Amino acid sequence: MFYYILKYVVLGPVLRLVFRPRIEGLGHVPDEGPAIVAGNHLSFSDHFLMPAIIKRRITFLAKAEYFTGPGIKGRLTAAFFRAIGQIPVDRSGKGAGQSALREGLAVLERGELMGIYPEGTRSRDGRLYKGKVGVAVMAIKAGVPVIPCAMLGTFEIQPPGQKVPRIKRVTIRFGEPLDFSRYAGMENEKAAIRAVTDEIMYAILGLSGQEYVDEYAVKAKTAPPEKPGKFPRRSR
Question: Which residues pair with 61 in a beta bridge?
């Protein structure tokens, strides 16, 4: 209940009024049934802007740090993320990936909409980074479509490290659903899940127009900036 109060009464109307998002292709998001919305991740604001404009409830797998912060601020943040239905995922340790997969598949098995950022973390420089294969494993195993999504302008309003977002119009763009039924039963094959992941990232790239870096965003955060690379060829 609190989720819908925030979405339609408190937070949603404010976000629409302040940022006046241009929304393109929203009809590609199914009105019912399980599906994955996979988007680029440029800003902390992404967590709020995309859910605010999607008609259905969407559940994201959120990093566990959002739920374990110290002090009053930490408790308020944790309470907020729980209230909007976000699921904490511990990204440390060998079992982190399997834990995220289990949680995501459970959402899809309930016939719900799940959101994921295949890059795994926010882009530090506004470029699009290599996707992690978890999104492919879930899409193949659950047999659900993937709707690519591009956030445009959110890096400019709130780049990493900026506490208060700038007031500027943003665009949220959805692409046609991607069907991976041809890969049924191949969720444990490395070549297949890499091909699916690259196809998803290619679709996001086409919507966002970002420069692509063939490197994981987490690794790039601790290394000197690299030159943009060409997008890897898609498997046919």
Answer: 87
